[in-house]
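Render Probable malate:quinone oxidoreductase in 3D.
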Amino acid sequence: MPTTDREPTVDVVLIGGGIMSATLAALLSTLEPTWTIEIHERRDGLAQESSNAWNNAGTGHAALCELNYTPQREDGSIDISKAVTINEQYELSRELWDYLAGHDRLPGGSTSVSTTPHMTFVRGADGVDHLRRRFDALRAHPLFSDLELSTDPDEIARWAPLLVADRDPAEPVAATRSAAGTDVDFGALTHAMVDAVVARGADLHLESEVTRLRRDRRGGWRVTVRDRRWNGRSRSRTVHARFVFIGAGGGALRLLQKSGIPEAKGYGGFPISGQFLRTTNPDVVAAHHAKVYGRAEIGAPPMSVPHLDTRVVDGGTALMFGPYAGWSMKFLKHGSWLDLVRSVRPGNLVPMAAVGLRNLDLLTYLIREVTTSSEGRFRALRQFVPTARPADWELITAGQRVQVIKRGPGGGVLEFGTELVSAADGSIAGLLGASPGASTAVATMVDLLERCFPGKVDDWRPVLRQMMPSLGGGEWDEAMELDLSDDAVSAQR
């Protein structure tokens, strides 16, 4: 590895040991196998924050069951455009995972995706009417042609018995079901992808915290990292990186701010924590095999849509219900109580204040959620599972989410999706936000490649298209005029 003034130079530094960095590492190590890559994770293991299997619901978000991806227009019609986009993006993830598994690049991770039907369940005449209109709108699109709808409690009981057992037969109910849904262990996927890129030459540094980012006068970045191991004596080292990606979850905002790039100015974050009820009782688990999403309460953020999920983690199966929203000033589950305070800058003070004033209903909702008793949480579960018993369920803490605040109408807007922030010269990029990030990680990283490597992406298109056949449209389809034979792809690598 070349050095200058005893400081090594690498092609790529990836900050954060979660699914985003793992995905980008898998792509770049295939596209440019001679590039040097370093991955830095501040914790003592990979996927310990949002990518950890028990810190998220594991839904392979394909918009098959999530009502918040199909909003109702003012005229009462259903807008499916976001659902179509998310479904297409998730398909890219599935294709990349299949490609890696087929090329021995996903050791032990090929079982991380389990077929699990995705369902939407609603109660009451209004809910039934809304779900029927959603079903009609989605079913007309080829991506959702296998979606099923039922208002028959007996048929819904065959799909998911726990939903209707001991329920009032006079209450109207409806459900949609897609047998093609998935449950995903993103933690296992992260480990598998990183293991593969390390085997191909990448360097993984655990308990390695990036503390400073400075532009290098020669181009690229000087990245200062601190050794957090007990015997590291707080030693620091500096690495010259030609490209830096900040995939540090809730820690990404502060690092982007430290970089000083103008594109990061005006961004803030609003942290939301969560909890789930979980059961491993084999009798209860055996009676439910699906991910079932319901309707969010008025004023609730999209990430708080209630859902009852089959989870397959480390070969074991469990059920998880939630999330119950909470609030913490931490930006990471294992972060600092000062994270929110430290993120405030003159450039984002106005957007953060404006968002706070315009989202008092969200604050009210969070206060109510934080003060809800255990009995109140269990009542919410029983709306999904009338036969649920407290003795079967335990409360677990989920990962920390940081919703994006940025400049916008009225001073600032609160975003519930993900936001890719990149420098104008493409030398650094970071990812902010939450759901459906993990499921659409591949599409986001392809976007990053186009933004940050414009001089390379034309040469990469044939390989990317071989890895992800459904990647297309516009320039991608034009690139198919190139030779995509196996010999050409091998030569490209």
